[in-house]
Design brief:
This protein is of the alpha/beta class. It is 25% helix and 31% strand.
């Protein structure tokens, strides 16, 4: 069978015939010119020839999202077997697994993308882009039917590609289902203001349910809710006294539930505060707080850093870290400080002490680059030689991919290699890879000039399955360290917090180690809620060391470096040193202080290029004691001597101590938002709507330099500039989609002022909010595309015959070019048209 795809071009034959009749000088009737004209018209018209297809292609889209996980586990393998056994000899079968992202499944591979979303539209687009257009193709979606993407217009896409979509829904889980709707509560309240939280509860069966209310994961209330007629309501009042954002969560606790994933809803409430200083300190009665309050500043003091989360940065304009070690700060909070300073314009001050700067493990931490001083390890400032043993978990969980071509094991190896390269030539190191047995990777060896060679050996460690036998690994490390005569001996245990096995008599072994002067720290991949977290915490406590929990494997190299530097360098010098004025204070204040003559000790650091220094040490190091600089929109300062607690007596007796702290803190504070501006945020579904409002006098300024909207997803997400629209004079507006299970924070950069917002997140998880309308929508799309809802899987191979045409344009084009070149050549040779 023959057809023409663009028949309108055939009208050119009439035009050419008319030209040949009226303009004979064109010689269009000469043989070669006539052939060229005919071939050109045919190429434009695109003639196509029907070909027979040797078989059919079926692309199966397998829903791997959280809400479908149980059904896939129960029926997925059987479905694959049925589809494979029912295909014809020339048919082909492809499987695309999808959740947040689609993946063409290869034999023996695991599904790695996040399962917190059902991106059905993305999966369909991926399959359409991968299909063989010359073969008859159909899509089959095996799903629970609840996509977290908008499916509007998908039917027209399928029709345009000539590819029908069949659907087969997984059987709904048995039993009754209860779910919580979004929490209704204000986004912002004043300190001490009462507010109401309200949420509806929906159920397929009436009854009374227990519920609890959490504030920052701590229980704040609870009770029972009556579900009548399929609906009930939870109401309670709240009150927050301190600044920052707090996350409330309402959880229902039914005795049995078909879909437990929709039993919770969350909501962030920000306590508005002006000019707050967040003081994170090791001292319950920190004199810094007293001094700043005397200057009229609002200070919120935190002595338990473990309670911190990114929400605490919603209210403060500056953060002070006063002798608090990095490992006590939650990783999410520490990572959030970069956006707080660089984009939101906040201030950061770190003061000295034995648990600060390099001694506190801040080397290569998320805030290292924010500080005006560097904490690198320099050989001339090291302690005596040390021996370190690294015990590396190489269990099966370490083989999981973090990104393309990179596993958790690779990142842990890189961390161990980084630790080795930070040691000095006189140090010694030993490395063990542990599963059910310890395997010697590097016997106890002096570093010498072989640091790079030893590090390369460590980078080759491979995950070998099973779990990590903790006792056997520690025993092997201690046996090896006892061969060393180094004055300092230290063990770093790297282990999965969810898979640390066979601890044995670890208490006895660690007691033996510590009695000999050795120390032991733990880098735990995971969180404190993991099954073996308590064991790893106890190991670090008994070993007089630190413990680092982090679920983000990409942070492992930095954690190894932090721990190595905090152990291996003499970063805090506790002898009295004179203070030398370097003149930089005039950049902060018009009045130069009468510096105190000396301080009782300081953290040895080095001034970064482009940073300013106000005072340096009078010893041979000439190290910065007071330094500062601009970091993006914000400011950062470092006072490397203690201002509270031990080694601070001389400073606290200084007559200008209070004025010094007040002046440097005020310098860190960003300016207030410009008058006549305001910010409004609200949710529409799972999208955040942001409106920036301003008075008419500012309109001319914003024409020349429009305000910028910058957001970051999660604690460590990088800044993203969001395009927004000027809706009218006085209002810019933007709509931002928040990834499933994530939260977002941002800032409006409006010239000299900044207005920050967040953290904010949708109140409910879209993966588990499953309205019945979603099933109807998907059925309509399937029918419109030419597909159907099938009951039996073999029916997916039934495809309505459709003509399969192949274009002849690729054959016509070379003939046209040949005829044209031949005609030009013969005409030039003979002097007349041929």
């Amino acid at each position: 069978m023959f057809q023409v795809a663009e028949p309108q071009w055939l009208l050119l034959f009439l035009v050419l015939a008319l030209l040949a009749w009226r303009l004979p000088r064109l010689a269009l009737l000469s043989p070669l010119r006539a052939v060229c004209a005919v071939l050109l018209v045919l190429w434009l018209a695109d003639p196509q020839l029907q070909i027979s297809s040797p078989g059919k292609d079926l692309w199966v889209l397998m829903d791997r999202s959280d809400s479908a996980a149980g059904a896939v586990a129960a029926s997925g393998p059987e479905s694959e077997t049925i589809l494979e056994s029912s295909r014809g000899p020339a048919d082909r079968l492809f499987f695309v697994d999808f959740a947040e992202a689609p993946v063409l499944r290869e034999p023996g591979t695991a599904f790695e993308p996040s399962t917190a979303a059902s991106a059905l539209r993305l999966a369909i687009g991926f399959a359409l882009s991968q299909r063989d257009k010359s073969r008859q193709t159909k899509l089959l979606a095996l799903t629970d039917g609840f996509s977290t993407e908008d499916l509007t217009g998908l039917d027209s896409t399928l029709r345009r590609n000539g590819t029908p979509l069949d659907i087969r829904f997984f059987p709904a889980p048995g039993g009754d289902d209860y779910r919580v709707g979004a929490i209704e509560a204000p986004l912002r309240v004043a300190p001490g203001q009462s507010f109401l939280l309200q949420a509806n509860v929906f159920g397929t069966k009436d009854g009374d349910l227990d519920y609890e209310v959490l504030c920052d994961d701590a229980k704040a209330g609870g009770g029972r809710v009556e579900v009548r007629g399929g609906r009930g309501t939870i109401r309670l009042s709240g009150r927050l006294e301190t600044g920052g954002s707090r996350r409330y969560e309402i959880r229902i606790l039914p005795e049995s539930d078909a879909r437990p994933g929709n039993n919770a809803a969350g909501h962030w409430v920000e306590v508005t505060s002006s000019g707050t200083i967040l003081l994170i300190t090791a001292y319950p009665d920190d004199p810094v707080s007293t001094v700043l309050k005397a200057a009229g500043l609002t200070v919120e003091t935190i002595t338990d850093p473990t309670v911190l989360h990114p929400g605490y940065l919603a209210g403060p304009r500056a953060v002070i870290l006063n002798n608090v070690p990095a490992h006590e700060l939650p990783p999410e909070f520490l990572a959030s400080l970069d956006f707080f300073v660089r984009e939101q314009g906040g201030g950061l001050l770190m003061t000295g002490g034995r648990k600060s700067f390099g001694s506190g493990g801040y080397f290569e931490s998320p805030i290292d680059a924010l500080l005006p001083v560097s904490m690198e390890l320099r050989q001339e400032h090291r302690k005596l030689a040390m021996a370190m043993a690294l015990v590396m978990d190489r269990s099966g969980s370490m083989s999981a991919a973090v990104s393309a071509g990179t596993t958790k094991m690779d990142l842990a190896n890189e961390g161990a290699a980084r630790a080795i390269q930070l040691l000095g030539p006189a140090d010694a190191v030993s490395v063990f890879a542990v599963d059910s047995e310890p395997h010697v990777i590097v016997p106890l060896s002096r570093i010498g000039s072989d640091a790079a060679k030893i590090a390369q050996s460590v980078r080759r460690i491979q995950s070998a399955g099973g779990g990590i036998f903790v006792y056997r690994g520690l025993e092997a490390a201690w046996t090896e360290l006892q061969k060393s005569e180094a004055g300092q001996q230290h063990v770093i245990l790297f282990s999965d917090a969810a898979d640390s096995e066979a601890p044995g008599e670890y208490q006895r072994l660690i007691a033996e180690m510590t009695s000999a002067g050795a120390t032991l720290s733990v880098i735990a991949l995971g969180s404190k809620s993991d099954p073996d977290a308590a064991l790893l915490e106890d190991i670090a406590r008994l070993g007089n060391g630190r413990i680092f929990f982090n679920a983000d494997a990409t942070q492992l190299p930095g954690l190894f470096a932090q721990e190595t530097v905090s152990v291996a360098r003499s970063a805090f010098l506790d002898s009295m040193v004179t203070v030398v004025d370097s003149g930089g204070w005039l950049q902060i204040s018009p009045q130069n202080p009468q510096w105190l003559p000396s301080v009782d000790g300081y953290n040895l650091c080095y001034l970064r290029p482009e940073a300013s220094v106000a005072a340096i040490s009078g010893d041979e190091y000439k190290a910065p004691l007071v330094s500062f600089w601009q970091r993006g929109a914000g400011k950062s300062a470092a006072v490397t001597f203690p201002v509270s607690g031990a080694n601070s007596e001389t400073f606290r007796s200084w007559a200008d101590a209070a004025g010094f702290l007040q002046t440097i803190t005020r310098w860190l504070l960003p300016g207030p938002p410009a008058p006549g501006t305001a910010l409004r945020t609200r949710f529409m579904g799972n999208d955040l709507l942001v409106d920036f409002l301003y008075d008419q006098p500012l309109a001319a300024e914003f024409v020349k330099s429009p305000p910028r909207l910058v957001v970051a997803t999660g604690a460590s997400g990088g800044p993203q500039n969001i395009l927004w629209e000027k809706m009218e004079n006085g209002r810019f507006s933007a709509r931002i989609a928040i990834p499933p299970g994530q939260w977002l924070r941002g800032v409006v950069d409006a010239g000299p002022s900044r207005i920050s917002f967040g953290p904010l997140s949708p109140g409910t998880d879209p993966e588990w909010q499953q309205p019945s309308a979603a099933l109807r929508t998907l059925r309509d799309i399937s029918r419109s595309s030419g597909g159907r809802e099938i009951a039996e899987l073999p029916d997916a191979w039934q495809m309505a015959p459709r003509p399969n045409f192949e274009s002849l344009k690729n054959w016509i084009l070379p003939l046209l070019l040949f005829a044209f070149l031949l005609e030009v050549g013969l005409t030039r040779w003979s002097g007349r048209a041929i």
